[in-house]
Amino acid sequence: MDIFKNRNFVKLFFAALASQMGSTVGNMAFAFYLLEHFSSKPYYATIAELMYSLPTLFVFVIVGVVADRFDRKKVAENCDWIRAIMTACLFFALFTNSIPLIFFILFLRSAVTKFFYPAESSLVQAILRKDQYAQASGLNQVLFSIFLVFGVGLGALAYRTVGIHGAVLVDLISFVLSALLIRSCKIPKSARLPNGRVSWKGLHISSAVSDFLEGIRYILHNRLLSLIIFGFFIFGFVQGSFAVLPLFTMKYELAPNSYEMYSSLFAIFLGAGLLVGSTVSTFFAKKIKPFPMFVTPIFLTSIFVFLLGFVDEVEFYLSIIFLIGMCIGPVNVAIGGWIPNIVHPKLMGRVSGWIDPLMMFAQSATLLCIALLFPNIIRNIDLLYYGMALIILFVFFFYMILMPKYLNEKQHRLGKNTIKSVL
Prior knowledge:
Layout: H1 7-37, H2 43-53, H3 55-69, H4 72-96, H5 99-127, H6 133-183, H7 189-192, H8 205-221, H9 223-254, H10 259-283, H11 290-308, H12 314-342, H13 348-373, H14 381-402, H15 409-422
Helix pairs in contact: 1-6, 2-5, 3-5, 3-8, 3-13, 4-5, 4-6, 5-13, 6-10, 6-12, 9-10, 9-12, 9-13, 9-14, 10-12, 11-12, 11-14
């Protein structure tokens, strides 16, 4: 693919790979460490997961603002340096066996991570041609899928071979490598500072909130962008459902005696499906229009999720999960190619900064609903699958009816020019 002829993209791609490596290996190894050393306190592993997600609630207002107002290259690079320093602190904190201190460091490191991806994705938008956005999105999905498939195995391998301290050192080296790769990129100043240079002294809470609200107005003013962002919100419900339903299905229906193993296989099969779907859609991104590549897999996903309610064999269940993963891949590639095309570069950070909190809110709401409904009100897990299938089918019809109205060249130009009426 000609996208790899762009040296800046290659460096950013491998920087994202190293950064993801630094976030995945240590986190998974730490989960094994907690389960082994604090087996009588399994809630420690749950609290650790909260340390990775809760920071979103504290920083989501300023994440996108920082990516848009400051040098995006320096933001991404400094995120890696700060995480490397925090990882070094984590290395020594593990010798103290102070769980509160370790959790605090994990919380801070995760908060810094939230600033990395909006800045990195904004840089990618600036260095690629429009016809390369979908390919870049597909490659990022392939990267995500690889870690979804092998993340648990890499964490387990690191923990069993070099121990928790060795796994943390792998994290540190990965962050340093990512920072060096980003520093070596030669990106024009106009791409790094599309809104001009701003000093930290000029950033106040009021200005950050104003910029954050400006991002909301921009999203709402661009109907096509609003539909796509709404899609992320809906997919948060699906993500929340799949966070627990496979575990419940294995525990209470398909494999009560070996549900831990099959729950792990769920992630592997889903990740493998994502890997195949993302890889195929990346190669065909220029030959297939984004709209059919987006809506057709959504319809197929609703059918496959509905079928999960009828499954009584674990092998059949995992096979359907693989097919669902194949469907999710093209959807993510299509969305990832659309957003850079219709979002003005000056507001890319603020738009990207909205995706994570919206998905997290939907995911948390879904988990709360499932906790309240199952098994007190809804005793049959299959009904939850049917309900999720109906939600996905609603999304399909929603997009089939509304989205074609905005998929034309005029709307794409509007997405680029909306900033004039917002600023």
